[in-house]
Amino acid sequence: MGQQLGIVDYLFLYCMVSIWVMLFVNIVLTIGGYIYYLKTLKMNLDEPLNAYPFVSILIPAHNEEKVIGQTVSALIALDYPRDKYEIIVINDNSSDQTGEILANIQRRVPDFNLNIITTDTVTGGKGKSNALNIGFQKSKGELIAVYDADNTPERNALKYLVHALRRDDSLGAVIGKFRTRNRNKNMLTRFINIETLGFQWMVQAGRWQLFNLCTIPGTNFIVRKSIIEEMGGWDTKAIAEDTEISFRLYRLGYKIKYIPMSVTWEQEPETIPVWMRQRSRWVKGNVYVLVKNFKLLFSGESKYIRFDLLYFSSIYFLFLSSAIISDLIFLLGVCDIIQFKVAGNTALLWLMAYLIFILEIAIALSMEKGESNPKNIALIALMYFTYCQLWLIVAIRGVWLYVKDSFLGLEAKWYKTERF
Questions:
Q1: Strand ranges across the sheet with 255-266
Q2: pLDDT band at 343 (very low <50, low <70, confident <90, very high)
Q3: Which end of the chain is more exposed for a tag (fewer CB within 10 A), N or C?
Q4: Confidence (pLDDT) at 39
């Protein structure tokens, strides 16, 4: 029995140290994000350029009949010189009305530079990366922008991204902010709204301020075409193609900057099953990227991505295991199945961690107009016991899917997020 209790004690200490290290790192990132937020208040991205570069906007679309019309219409209405950008929609092996809707838009605006590429089961249907590579081959712009098929960017979104990139030659890409369009639909979408804002202000803005690091999201970003050519396009084995291409871009010595003034609104999952499938895919894709690049951790080549390798590895392995083990210890302890002898007030440690979690997210929400309100603060407190616990299940499932699919040698394919 003594040996068993000793093991529990060590596991508990492991959990406490891991969780508190991650809490400390995130509070530092949150402070960094707030400093960057104050800087953005003084930025002026409205001053026009002397000459605007030609931009190719890629939209990969697979069975997107519910949202594709709104997305393309929003992109046509962008505040950007009309003769300086093209829209390339990759209608990737769709079996619904996506093609008909796009054809109707093309007939409605015959003078607009809208190019529709339709693939079949032979050339397409192999995932977002493959679709982007197909669209990239037809692109004419010196800059490449990517928007997901469920996005409605604000009119100045692209202009702000271009202005930021053209004024700093060290930048390889510039990313904007994504907001939850259907955030008031139900409790789940409200949680997602808080999560996305917290991530962007804490992890994206904080990492940019402190380390000049950002991760390209799947939408609302621009990248220099020459860099994509140098990298040989998107990795077709990567499900999280955005994270994967970020790592490769940094290894080439370029930076990725976060410009929160560039905003797009996207539709988020409205049911738990759809959310779990989407997030499991994200975890699986990010684990692929970490495994692919982990060997570079102690290499000079990784000096630009070492923090990200450590940070995301800690989230998906160190923090995930700690959270699962600590939950099990708590439940078994409540049921009086196990006991541990670690000295100190464990209830106080847990309460402090809980309060810091609320504080971190509350600070992030304070940087977003209209989001720092009593209702959202109460939702943050509730998230810890509900949404965050569901995330543990999603993370376990994502890691398992990566291991299973790697063992079976399955290829990347479209993981369709249901639209509403």
A1: 114-119, 85-92, 55-61, 143-146, 221-224, 171-180, 255-266, 151-153
A2: low
A3: N
A4: 97
CB neighbours of 14 closer than 8 A, spacing ≥ 6?
322, 325
Q: For residues 371 and 363, give the distance between their C-alpha atoms in angstroms, rounded to a whole number.
A: 11
Contact 256, 214 (CB under 8 A): yes
What is the full DSSP assignment across 283-345?
HHHHHHHHHHHGGGTTSGGGTTTHHHHHHHHIIIIIIHHHHHHHHHHHHHHHTTS------S-
Q: Coil, helix or strand for 151?
A: strand
Cβ burial, residue 317 (10 Å; 0-12/13-18/19+): middle
CA–CA distance, 314 with 308 (Å, rounded to integer): 10
CA dist., res. 67 & res. 74, Å (int)? 11
**Strands 85-92 and 114-119, bridge-based pairing:** parallel
pTM over cut 0.70:
yes
φ and ψ of 127, to 5 deg: 115, 170
Tokens of 271: 């049911």
| Cα distance between residue 251 and residue 258, in whole Å | 18
Q: Closest by alpha carbon to 290, among 257, 255, 247, 242?
A: 247
Q: Are 111 and 211 in contact (CB under 8 A)?
A: no
Q: CA 28 to CA 36: how far, in whole Å?
A: 13
Amino acid making up residue 392: L
| pLDDT tens digits for range 60-106 | 999 999 999 999 999 999 999 999 999 999 999 999 999 999 999 99
Question: Cβ contacts of residue 193 below 8 Å, gap of 6+?
Answer: 179, 180, 183, 268, 371
